[in-house]
Design goal:
about 325 residues, mainly alpha, MetI-like fold, 2 domains
Amino acid sequence: MQTFIIKRLLQSILVLFVLTFLVFLVIHLLPGDPLLLYTGQSTAASLTPEQLHNLRVEYGLDKPLLVQYFVWIYNVFQGDMGKSIFYNDKVSTLLAQRMPVTIHLGLTAILIGAIVGITFGVICALRRGKLIDSLLTFIANIGITAPGFWVGILMIYLFALQLHWLPTNGYTSPFKDFGMSTRQLVMPVFCLALFTLASMTRQTRSSMLEVVRQDYVRTAWAKGLKERVIVTRHVIKNGLIPVITMLGMQVRTVFGGSVLIETVFNVPGFGRLMVSAVTTHDYLIVQGGVLVIGVIVMVANLLVDISYGWLDPRIRYG
């Protein structure tokens, strides 16, 4: 197990290097000068060449691209992600302020999507061909195809503008006002959880149907065991490996989708910060954000791989 984890960590570190380097090149190849966007065209025109050069030196923009990247990597290992050009603040501070909001939204969406999706999938498999199966499968198909941001706009129109049940935007910490926080979370969490719920329903249904046909399950039915015992002890655990794999992939989908959802609902989270950073060419925020998301996905995938051995003792790690 330890050898497997070390190999996966080394592979993940290599992937993070490649990912951050590609993003670094892309953000620097975009047209526009981040200093001009930061100072404004009128202010930049009044600055002397020496002042502009001093600004470039301050933010490390005077060095070649490769040097800038490796300097950034070295500083990251020292715990320093650099200083934002646009916000004039440490990137680590900005991410620490915004990430709790996105994690709150993302984890809530993943938990709801996984619990409801797996439950729906099991029900569909056990009641295959019946009305409840057709209804839940239809809902899952709609959830797979409907874009989250489009669903969000429709929900704002219906529940906020027409019915006045929910606030249109914003975010309140649950530690300050739990009621308002819950009302503000309903629509963005639903939009983030929709795809997870739908995909988990479809995958769970497919996996459960394969397990239900196995001989040991038929034997359990023939022995007269209760349906609850058969489902919990034999069906679910043996059919969860593909579902857990899908769940690990949803971590990337949810945190990536937060960029659009937070913009639609004006949530001051990590996604909106990334959109603002790309618009203003604040490349250090983009670099730091990509690194954080990469680490989150890496950890999620590692936990998924480790869980295989718990779900199926026949799996051994080499």
